[in-house]
Amino acid sequence: MKTRPISKPTYMIESVHNALLLLNAVRDHGSLRLKDAAEEIGVAESTAHRLLAMLIYHGFVVQDESRRYLPGPSIGVGPTHSSWTKTFRDASLGPMRELASLTGETVNLVVRTGVESRVIGAVESEKLLRVGNRQGHVPPARTSAGGRVLLAQLGDSALTDLYQSDHALSADRLAPAEFAQLCRELRAVAEKGYATAVDTVEVGLSSVALCLRNGEGVALGALVVALPTTRLQSSLESGLVAQMRRAAVGIESRIRELRPSGTM
């Protein structure tokens, strides 16, 4: 199902906006200290504490004995079960900012959890017509460029477990013809070395993604450039993928020793 483009509300409610940013951060990083939470949204620790207290009250966040904030039972989408994603994001932000400046487009960092892809970091374009900050969004992996390039790293048996086995949720299970088509598309992604998605997550939005690996060759996530569909073809013809590959080299040099934890 295609959805309408998401635009920033005309009248932002700042406290609600900050609370939701914190909720996404706790979910995607697995845990946060109060200092980290305040830095995440650019507010004083006292303000972050009040926002987190409200999230605790409604069951979206819990606090453990070490006073770290963790995903609560009401959060719905499960956490990534790891703190390595924050290290991953922090290591990636420098090259992401350089790539955003070079291309003029929004740059995202994506990880995969099961059949979902998650935007855990974003550097927003400064152009008037741009893709907004999607940090915290959780689109299906098979429809997003970041998710597709990460699915392309899996073998047939792992893909079958995700989309065809008895363990797959009914909403995620694909008919045999759909699954065969997905496998063909993922093989093409693996051969090209990058994935694209055109209007599959939102109408008018396209993206290009490369896989990011640690020193052992393990796929940790994806570097994604998101842009209006009207600029996709000209960007590809102007060397976007080569620019992304240079940025990916910079990120991979910083994550050589990073090891993922939890189930992906």
TrEMBL record:
Domain IclR-ED as annotated: residue spans: 73-257
Stored Pfam families: HTH_IclR, IclR_C
UniProt key word Nucleus: no
Transmembrane residue ranges: none
SUPFAM superfamilies: GAF domain-like, Winged helix' DNA-binding domain
Sections of the chain in a coiled coil: none
PROSITE patterns (UniProt xref): HTH_ICLR, ICLR_ED
Superkingdom in the source lineage: Bacteria
PANTHER family cross-referenced by the UniProt entry: HELIX-TURN-HELIX TRANSCRIPTIONAL REGULATOR, ICLR FAMILY (PTHR30136), HTH-TYPE TRANSCRIPTIONAL REPRESSOR ALLR (PTHR30136:SF24)
Record keywords: DNA-binding, Transcription, Transcription regulation
Domain HTH iclR-type stretches: 13-73
GO-annotated molecular function: DNA binding; DNA-binding transcription factor activity
Protein name in the entry: IclR family transcriptional regulator
Biological process terms in GO annotation: negative regulation of DNA-templated transcription
